[in-house]
Amino acid sequence: MTSPNDSADDRVRAAVDAAFRDEWGQVVATLIGLTGDWDLAEDCAQDAFAAALVTWPRDGVPRRPGAWLTTTARNRAIDRLRRDAAGAAKLRRLAVPADDPDESPVEEIPDERLRLIFTCCHPALPFAARVALTLRTLAGLTTAEIARAFLTAEPAMAQRLVRAKRKIAEAGIPYRVPSAELLPQRLAGVLAVLYLIFNEGYDEQDARRALTAEAIRLARVLVRLMPHEPEPRGLLALMLLHEARRPTRTDHGVLVTLEHQDRSRWNQALITEGVALLDQALVMRRTGPYQVQAAIAACHATAPDAAGTDWPQIASLYAELARLAPSPVVDLNRAVAVAMADGIPAGLAMVDRLTASGRLAGYYLLPATRADLLRRAGRTGEAKAAYEEALKLAPTETERRYLTSRLEEL
C-alpha cells in the first residue's frame, strides 16, 4: 500500500526529473558563463539537483525551479572558487565586463536553448568534440549515450570530452553567443546536435520522447532563424518524416521493421509537411547530407506499400550520401538498398566487405543486416548465427526482442 509520503516523494522526484530535462542546459550554461570552468559548472549543477532532492520534499517545489537550481548551483560555485586563490582571482576578473565586438550577442536568436547550442559549438574545437561536448553539457546526455551515438567506446568518448574541456581552458576560448555573421560557420555543429538529440529520443520510452519533441521544436526555430539555408529545412523534413512513422515502430515492445509497419497509421500531415520542406530546400540547389537523408525518408514515406518502394532511387540517394558524408553506417544502409534494388547477392557482398574492414566492429546492426539478407537468400543456418551475434551486441530491450523473434521464426 502506498503511503501519502510515498506519493509526495514521487511528485518531488517527478518535479526534479522535469527540471533536469528543462533546466539542466541553462543552469550549466549560466555557470560556465560565470566561472569559465566547464567541469566546475557540471559539478555544481549536479550538486544543485542533489540539493533539490533533499530540500524540496521539506520546503515544497519552488514556483520557479530553474531559478532555484541556478541560484543554488551559482552559490556552490562561488563558495568553491573562494576557497582557493586561483578561484578568487577568477572571481575578481569576472567582476570586470569584457567586450569583444567579434563575439557580440545575437538577440535575433529567439530561443534560449538554441542560443546556448550555437554558443557551445565553437569552431576552434574539432567537429566531433564540439558536438559531443554540447550534447553532454546542454542536452544532459550521459557519456555512454553520446558514445553510442558516435559508435565509439565510452572510455574513448570520456577522454574526448576531457580533451575538449582542456583545450577550452588552455586556449581561453570564450563562452559567448556568436555574432550574426559567425552563425553559418557553426551551423553544421548545431545541426548535428539537434539530429543526435532527436535520435536519442526516437524510441518507445516516454521519458526520452521529450528529446525528440525538443529537437523538432528547435529545428523549427532554426528554419525561421536561417530561412536561406537549405540544410535546416532538410533536417526538419527528415525529423518529421521519421516522426510520422513513430506509432508503428513497435508492437507490444517488439520492433516492427519498415516493410511490416501499418502505413494507414502513419501521420500523413507530418509526411506532407516534411515533403514540402524538402522541396523548399532542394529548390535552393545546395544539396547537403540532411536533404539527401530526408529524400530517402520521403521515398519510404510516400510509397503506397513496401513492394512499391523505389529501391533503385534509394540506392542512388545513398550513393550520393556516401559522397557527401562518407561513413560505414551510410555504406551499410546503402548495401540494404542495393540488395533490394539489384539482388541479395550484391547487397551481401557489400556487407561482407564492411565486415572484413572491421569499421563497424561491435555495431549490432552489421550482423543484424547480414542476418536479414541471409534469411532472404534462404541461407538459414548462416542467418541464425548472424542473428545470435547481433543479439549479443543489441543495446536495447526492444531490439533484443526483435532479434529473438527472428531467431524463433528461423
From TrEMBL:
It comes from the Bacteria. The keyword Cytoplasm does not apply. Residues 117-168 form the RNA polymerase sigma factor 70 region 4 type domain. GO terms for molecular function: DNA binding; sigma factor activity. Residues 26-84 form the RNA polymerase sigma-70 region domain. InterPro entries: DUF6596 (IPR046531), RNA_pol_sigma-70_dom (IPR014284), RNA_pol_sigma70_r2 (IPR007627), RNA_pol_sigma70_r4_t2 (IPR013249), RNA_pol_sigma_r2 (IPR013325), RNA_pol_sigma_r3/r4-like (IPR013324), WH-like_DNA-bd_sf (IPR036388). Transmembrane segments: none annotated. One of its GO terms (biological process) is DNA-templated transcription initiation. Residues 186-281 form the DUF6596 domain. The keyword Transcription regulation applies. Pfam families: DUF6596, Sigma70_r2, Sigma70_r4_2. Signal peptide: none annotated. Keywords: Sigma factor, Transcription, Transcription regulation. Belongs to the sigma-70 factor family. ECF subfamily. This is RNA polymerase sigma-70 factor (ECF subfamily). It comes from Nonomuraea polychroma.
